[in-house]
From TrEMBL:
The keyword Cytoplasm applies. It catalyses: N-terminal L-methionyl-L-phenylalanyl-[protein] + acetyl-CoA = N-terminal N(alpha)-acetyl-L-methionyl-L-phenylalanyl-[protein] + CoA + H(+); N-terminal L-methionyl-L-leucyl-[protein] + acetyl-CoA = N-terminal N(alpha)-acetyl-L-methionyl-L-leucyl-[protein] + CoA + H(+); N-terminal L-methionyl-L-tyrosyl-[protein] + acetyl-CoA = N-terminal N(alpha)-acetyl-L-methionyl-L-tyrosyl-[protein] + CoA + H(+); N-terminal L-methionyl-L-tryptophyl-[protein] + acetyl-CoA = N-terminal N(alpha)-acetyl-L-methionyl-L-tryptophyl-[protein] + CoA + H(+). Its main location: cytoplasm. This is N-terminal methionine N(alpha)-acetyltransferase NatC.
């Protein structure tokens, strides 16, 4: 996931403040195209990190981080990439210490929800993702973004994507998952993952993958409880130097 972020950052000229970003999405695209053209003119065989031909539509063969140019335009491309949503809203009651929590799970609906999603996820990150990263995932796969609400406050969320990997596998990818500290161990994380997986399955996914820090016991336990297995160790994957584990769940 850090990989996605750094590659997206790589094509962003400078760290733009969020209130400029909507207006700047076209300039980012333009900058990419220009950079691509420049590489072509220079005869560069190796394109800079994350930059691919604007005309190619192949998916990453290396890892989830490779982002094709058309995907970077997620603010302006509104093509439906994940059409089946088995359930869009559900309320589940959980009891802890004699207190009942009514948690409502709902699919992402509008950009108005983005600030609360970002706030929640950023709390647990040492280095915040840019708004481009959120928009890349959420605008392309809104039905793979679920929120958990308690009294209308966002206390959990999951952000995913679903696309073709190595031209044959329909692969779901869990990019972000976070639950507010006050609401942990109420199965909110598990429920969010289950909901996203259900949507992926309904959209013919073959498998789902994610990366998590090797030290992140709560996440590892959560995913392993759901049947994910440790597929690969990615050394020094995160900017803080920590290794990642790639976890995978096969549907067929
Ligand atoms: C990981 C995280 C999403 C779990 O959310 P949650 O709602 O508390 O998880 P759940 O209540 O569904 O817990 C499911 C299982 O995970 C494990 N788990 C959850 N929290 C744990 C903890 N603090 N220590 C050990 N295991 C834990 C348990 O096995 C738990 O099952 P159990 O309650 O039957 O024992 C949450 O801790 C979080 O937001 N962490 C910070 C962000 C993060 O690490 N995201 C994942 C990145 S991939």
């Amino acid at each position: 996931m850090e990989e996605v972020e750094s590659k997206l950052q790589n094509v962003v000229i400078s760290d733009v403040k969020s209130n400029h970003i909507v207006d700047n999405s076209h300039s980012v695209l333009k900058a990419n195209k220009e950079k691509f053209r420049e590489c072509q003119e220079n005869g560069d065989e190796q394109l800079p990190n994350g930059l691919q031909s604007p005309t190619t539509h192949q998916t990453s063969t290396e890892n989830e981080g490779s982002t094709e140019l058309s995907e970077l335009s997620s603010d302006i491309v509104t093509e439906e990439k994940c059409s089946e949503t088995p359930e869009s809203c559900e309320t589940i009651e959980v009891v802890r210490d004699n207190k009942t929590f009514r948690i409502t799970y709902k699919v992402y609906e509008s950009e108005l929800e983005l600030p609360s999603i970002m706030k929640l996820i950023q709390k647990d990150l040492s280095e915040p993702y840019s708004i481009y990263t959120y928009r890349y995932f959420i605008n392309n796969w809104p039905k793979l973004c679920y929120l958990a609400l308690y009294e209308n406050k966002c206390v959990g969320c999951i952000v995913c994507k679903l696309d073709i990997h190595r031209q044959i596998t329909k692969r779901g990818y869990i990019a972000m998952l976070a639950v507010d500290k006050e609401f942990r161990k109420l199965k909110i994380g598990t429920t969010l993952v289950q909901k996203a997986i259900r949507v992926m399955r309904a959209n013919q996914a073959d498998e789902v993958v994610l990366e998590t820090e090797i030290t992140n016991q709560p996440a590892l336990k959560l995913y392993e409880n759901l049947g994910f297995v440790r597929d690969k160790r990615l050394f020094h994957y995160y900017l803080n130097g920590v290794d990642a584990l790639r976890l995978k769940l096969w549907f067929r």
